[in-house]
């Protein structure tokens, strides 16, 4: 029998990939502009795309090219085979909707400034599908760069409105600082009375890159307030967080029982606005509570520390004025101030009234008061004919009335500690007009900078770990709009949105 020798079967040669065909990563790298570890999209120079990665990831860029630039991606071979085939366009029924540029741009501004979406949200696939047809119909270009320019223009409108609102009035500043992701932010708030209400405005959330010396911070704060047309003469007080000295409070950790009244006082002082006299009352109530802890061995020391702090607070000129116009503390036979202190405070109040008068426009500047102007012209005509000068008895009468009203504060009946001082002075708006204006400045003076600290909470929502690359100007523009929402809502009614789009596109 013939036996054939067993012969091993040679394996089939493996198909080799075409080594000349570039990979997706190699193709994608051609359209990524590199700068160190960072990368930015350059697949379509005409699109205005500003997509950037702090640390370049080619896979993410491929996905970006496919979703945001499908035509360019298909043209350069970056689409997968299933995506390259011809697709039958889906028929979409047309609908009539009422929308204009204002509604579109106002909505996008709120998405970024109110709801904390990034400037690049208009380049997200979902929003892009929704917004692009609307933007195309309204002839508006939407991308991160345009969004940033629009928000900057709106923020400038808000700043201009704030400048007009603060013109010719005395203001109280509040200043604080915070750090987030190694970026140091200086927050500047201002507080005053407007239309019978105490308002708090955010003037700046300024990034500080230099060493924070007292001289540098003073210069930076002056730059911010002067950018609104506010002069030094308009600043009535400045509230900063000096903190409590460790020497005074080093023993508090041992006084657990004494913490309850302090906690109540602290929560009271964290309200949106606590006037200086309300602060003083809350502090007195705390002292009274601690003083009555007869079984607490530490109550005496804590009472002394609180009382010493109260004495220091009372030495402040703004505090003295606030207490003087408060009938809960300054009343007939009150022992709060001695005679020398009363004279000094009255002088300060007069100086404040004079500052208010100097800030007011002169009669020649008040063009709206036509009757006053015509009367003034006629008086000048009579002077030209017959000589002489006008009597200043009206001004003298005003000054005399002001002094009398000021003296009368010492004879006020005493009010209980729940008395509303703000409403008290609002009722005297007509009967004590000059003293009312001073009182409004004084009661609007803040005792804390809580509103600035709350601004930093908004900063935490905007400057997240995913948005650390947000530019300084864009960050401040977003926060100015977010933290002055009521001003933005008013300005939205006045902005010429077509003109704004034209300026941004030019």
From TrEMBL:
Top-level lineage group: Eukaryota
One Pfam family per UniProt: Dimer_Tnp_hAT
Keyword annotations: Metal-binding, Nucleus, Zinc, Zinc-finger
Location in the cell: Nucleus
Transmembrane intervals: none
UniProt key word Metal-binding: yes
Residue ranges constituting the HAT C-terminal dimerisation domain according to the UniProt record: 413-482
Family matches, as InterPro entries: HATC_C_dom, RNaseH-like_sf, ZnF_BED_domain_contain
Region (Disordered): 1-22
Protein name, UniProt field: HAT C-terminal dimerisation domain-containing protein
Species, as recorded: Aedes albopictus
């Amino acid at each position: 029998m013939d036996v054939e020798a067993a012969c091993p079967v040679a394996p089939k040669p493996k198909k080799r990939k075409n080594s000349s065909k570039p990979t997706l990563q190699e193709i994608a790298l051609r359209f990524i502009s590199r700068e160190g570890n960072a990368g930015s999209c350059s697949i379509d120079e005409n699109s205005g795309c500003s997509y950037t990665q702090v640390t370049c990831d080619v896979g993410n860029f491929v996905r970006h090219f496919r979703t945001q630039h499908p035509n360019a991606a298909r043209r350069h071979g970056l689409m997968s085979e299933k995506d390259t085939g011809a697709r039958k366009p889906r028929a979409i029924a047309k609908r009539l909707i009422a929308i204009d540029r204002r509604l579109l741009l106002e909505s996008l501004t709120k998405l970024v400034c109110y709801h904390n979406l990034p400037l690049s949200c208009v380049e997200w696939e979902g929003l892009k599908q929704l917004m692009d047809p609307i933007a195309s119909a309204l002839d508006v270009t939407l991308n991160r760069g345009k969004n940033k320019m629009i928000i900057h223009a709106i923020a400038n409108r808000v700043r201009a409105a704030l400048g007009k609102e603060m013109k010719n009035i005395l203001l109280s500043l509040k200043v604080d600082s915070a750090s987030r992701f190694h970026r140091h932010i200086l927050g500047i708030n201002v507080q005053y009375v407007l239309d019978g209400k105490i308002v708090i405005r955010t003037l700046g959330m300024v990034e500080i890159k230099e060493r924070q010396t007292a001289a540098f911070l003073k210069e930076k704060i002056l730059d911010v307030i002067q950018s609104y047309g506010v002069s030094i003469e308009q600043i009535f007080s400045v509230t900063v967080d000096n903190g409590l000295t460790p020497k005074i409070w080093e023993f508090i950790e041992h006084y657990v029982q004494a913490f309850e009244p302090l906690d109540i006082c602290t929560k009271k002082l964290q309200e949106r606005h606590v006037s200086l006299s309300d602060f003083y009352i809350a502090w007195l109530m705390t002292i009274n509570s601690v003083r009555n802890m007869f079984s607490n061995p530490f109550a005496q020391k804590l009472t002394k520390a609180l009382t010493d702090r109260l004495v220091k607070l009372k030495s402040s000129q703004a505090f003295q004025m606030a207490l003087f116009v408060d009938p809960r503390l300054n009343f007939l036979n009150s022992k709060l101030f001695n005679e020398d202190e009363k004279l000094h405070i009255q002088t300060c109040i007069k100086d404040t009234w004079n500052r208010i008068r100097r800030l007011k426009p002169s009669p020649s500047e008040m063009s709206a008061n036509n009757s006053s102007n015509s009367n003034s012209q006629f008086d000048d005509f009579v002077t030209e004919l017959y000589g002489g000068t006008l009597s200043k008895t009206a001004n003298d009468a005003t000054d005399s009335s002001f002094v009398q009203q000021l003296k009368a504060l010492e004879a006020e009946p005493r009010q209980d500690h729940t008395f509303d001082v703000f409403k008290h002075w609002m009722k005297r708006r007509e009967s004590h007009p000059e003293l009312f204006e001073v009182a409004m400045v004084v009661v609007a003076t803040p005792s804390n900078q809580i509103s600035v600290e709350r601004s930093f909470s908004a900063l935490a929502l905007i400057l997240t770990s995913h948005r650390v690359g947000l530019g300084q100007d864009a960050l401040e523009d977003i926060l100015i709009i977010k933290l002055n929402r009521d001003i933005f809502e008013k300005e939205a009614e006045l902005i010429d949105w077509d003109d704004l789009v034209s300026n941004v596109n030019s």
